[in-house]
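thread: overnight batch results

M.L. [08:02]
morning all. the overnight job finished for the chain we discussed friday. pasting input first so we're all looking at the same thing
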Amino acid sequence: MENKDKRQLYSKEGRIQHKAPDQEEPSEASESQENTESQLSHDDIDHPVTPDNLEEDPTTAKVNNDPTNIETAAVTGPLVIFYGPRNVGKTVALLRLSEFIQQEYDVTPAKDYRGDDKYEETVKKFEQLRNRGLHAPEATGEINFLMLNVNQSGKHFCKILEAPGEHFFDPEKPNADYLHYLNQLFTSDIRKIYVFFFEIELFKNDTDRQNYANKIRRLIQKHVNIKRDKIIILCNKCDKFPDMYTNNNRPSQKLFREKLYDSPYFNALKGVLKKRGRVDFVAFSAGEFSTDSNGLQTFAFADPYFPQTFWKAIYANVKGGFSLFS
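M.L. [08:03]
and the structure it wrote out:
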């Protein structure tokens, strides 16, 4: 490509060099030196400046692969936050819940929530799995980090956030700070309903359990506004303990609550939860898991009782009604 006064020359690194039409061709030695200088300067520049009248070098095209690059100012409440570590079942719980409530609510991913290039793929995968209900997603892998809009009769009801578990708690870094986008949400004035995910057999050792409970305790003490925010304790994967089911094949909310609350590590939370007033408890199961002939993990949706009970707790807290089990 030529202009009247100059021509574009591209180095091996893709930087644009300019040469006047009457300029002598550089010798092999000087060209090697110039290329070295170009490379050294290029290492310190993320995106070389391109003159306005020249085409941009395609090798310098910017790709946004940071899923945490989020404009949280656009997030409105009430915001339901699924809080829990990896493999605790947040994604599958979200799939089961959204499949159930879409009978009466319009549940759609917020397509402008994340700015990275992979978010569109995340949204498509969520829709496929919700409609198909067959293969279970890997831990925040196939469905990695999205926000759902929940509307009823064309009116906004709430948003639901599902994020990678390590953003909330990582056993390898139990005292790590929250990422910037989470801190922005935690400190915002919007109304939040925190759904803290637990299991009867959460983690493999008491140290990790204690660290997880302590991190939740600190979050509640620092950011949960008793007059504005609400808390739900969700005991997930209760289908693993059928001995705590009632005669009608449904979990005893009382037995699961006692089992969880009486565990040593949960003592760190009892005091702060009591000070926060109403706290709902939900024993939950997304469904039955198994492995097919191809080695893929599959699941069949659990009885509608589970998403119905979970949604009743969310609904009551969004609306500010009475506790389900008080």
